[in-house]
Write a structure and sequence with these properties.
By secondary structure, the chain is of the alpha+beta class. The chain contains 2 helices and 5 strands; from the N terminus they run ββαβαββ. The chain has one domain (3-101): Roll (Ubiquitin-like (UB roll)).
Length: 107
């Protein structure tokens, strides 16, 4: 099963196996990670699953949709070029090893 490394706001790295077809947000929530809130449950209505995709993984993801780009304007932490909503990042085998970092705050 593909693996994702999540870097918590305190710098702690947590690696989880995430089934293909599942969002990075849902796996982080199920594992009880502290750096994510996901208040809307993955409906792209809150921007509290904001993450920073670490190089070189950003180039391997499809670009954000217009809706995601609009939602990213509402993030509580600093927006960066590698900002994404983890509810929109869907695991697939070729993303095995992807690393995302949660910002210092989500709301």
């Amino acid at each position: 099963m593909p693996r994702v490394t999540y870097i918590e706001p305190d710098g702690r790295a947590v690696t989880l196996e995430v089934a293909s077809g599942r969002s990075l947000m849902s796996a982080a929530m199920e594992a009880g990670l502290e750096g994510i809130e996901a208040q809307c449950g993955g409906n792209m209505a809150c921007a509290t699953c904001h993450c920073y995709v670490q190089p070189p993984w950003l180039e391997q993801l499809p670009p954000p949709t217009e809706d995601e780009r609009l939602m990213l304007q509402n993030v509580a932490a600093e927006w960066r070029k590698n900002s994404r909503l983890s509810c929109q990042l869907i695991m697939r085998p070729e993303l095995d090893g992807i690393t995302v970092q949660f910002p210092e705050r989500q709301s």
